[in-house]
Design brief:
Mean pLDDT: 91
Helix content: 40-55%
Radius of gyration: 21 Å
Strand order of the largest sheet: 2-1-3-10-4
Order of helices and strands: HEHEHEHEEHEHEHEHEEHHH
Low-confidence stretches: 1-18
Structural class: alpha/beta
Number of helices: 11
Shape: globular
Distance between the termini: 62 Å
Strand content: 15-25%
Number of strands: 10
Length: 319
């Protein structure tokens, strides 16, 4: 009787292991919870081109923006944990619980980390037509005209929104958040001078800074950006606790088979080490995050706590 039970159990487990061993046998969907043109859209696509070649399967990127990235994230949380759905998110992932208390998912329990892609400095950009040469000049203007200052974001809770809010809190200025569906739209409004400033990822702002369409006033990363070494950090300018690390990472639904997650982790790291990919990421200012997955998971959990406290102190709310 016991041998029959064991044999039956092995038979029921066999198909699961077989499907895991054969993975991937069909296209993989990668959900990006922000609109086209944002750094979270541009950077991962470069990696996925190489990753797709390694896996021998197409990676279909699906932009599902809205509500600070929570709409697309919720869709992945509910997806079948079969290894064919991924979430590409940013550090905005960790403040969502504080801003959206009725979330249908749990950031730390409903996802498993595949691996970090890297971090990207956010640059405070402004149109030359505005007439401000430094961040301190703009701060002085905002203090003198508290009702006139505004900034672009990709919605409450997005990484660019958090960069601006941390700067606002430290500089002690008032500024109205103007949310956009995608990074390209936000950039256009900044270039046109219809919105004052935008803490834009260096990967998407660099071409406009080089062309003189935009000025970079400060970076919110803890250290200066290698691509813009002459632009100071907000910390250097004397704004304490104004720094913000904007990272991007790949996740899967929590119950995805561990062997599939491990295989994808290995392939992701291999893709990012490919010479052509490394060169492109460096050109976009992407800083590697080689820490083990367990260390990154601990960072995510700590950020949920830290940014939750910041959101409460700053009075950040969704409409």
């Amino acid at each position: 009787m016991h041998r029959f039970v064991i044999a039956f159990a092995l038979l029921t487990l066999a198909p699961v292991h077989a499907s895991a061993d054969a993975w991937p046998s069909k296209p993989i969907r990668a959900v990006i919870p922000f609109g086209p043109g944002s750094a979270v859209d541009v950077v991962p696509r470069l990696v996925f081109d190489q990753l797709s070649k390694q896996l021998g399967q197409t990676i279909v990127v699906e932009n599902r923006g809205g509500a600070g990235g929570t709409i697309g994230t919720a869709a992945v949380a509910k997806a079948d944990p079969d290894g064919y759905t991924m979430l590409v998110h940013s550090s905005a992932h960790t403040i969502a619980p504080a801003l959206y208390p009725a979330l249908s998912y749990d950031v730390t329990r409903d996802f498993v980390t595949v691996g970090a892609i890297g971090s990207v400095p956010n640059v405070m950009i402004i149109a030359p037509s505005k007439g401000f040469k430094t961040a301190k000049e703009y701060v002085a203007h905002a203090k003198a005209n508290p009702a006139a200052s505004n900034y672009a974001s990709l919605g409450v809770g997005s990484a660019v929104h958090l960069s601006a809010e941390r700067f606002k809190a430290s500089a002690k200025i008032s500024s109205v958040n103007i949310p956009f569906k995608g990074g390209a739209e936000a950039l256009n409004e900044i270039i046109a001078g219809r919105v004052d400033f935008y803490f834009c990822p260096i990967s998407t702002s660099m071409p406009h800074i080089k062309a003189g369409r935009l000025l970079g006033l400060a970076v919110s990363s803890p250290k200066r950006a290698s691509l813009l070494p002459d632009i100071p950090t907000t910390l250097e300018l004397g704004y304490p606790d104004s720094d913000y690390t904007f990272w991007m990472a790949v996740f899967m639904p929590a119950k995805t088979p561990p062997d599939i997650v491990a295989k994808m982790n290995g392939e992701l790291r291999k893709a990012m080490e490919a010479p052509a990919v490394k060169e492109k990421l460096a050109t976009l200012g992407v800083e590697p995050m080689p820490a083990p997955v367990a260390q990154f998971d601990a960072q995510v959990k700590q950020e949920v706590i830290d940014y939750g406290a910041f959101a409460k102190a700053a009075g950040l709310k969704t409409n």
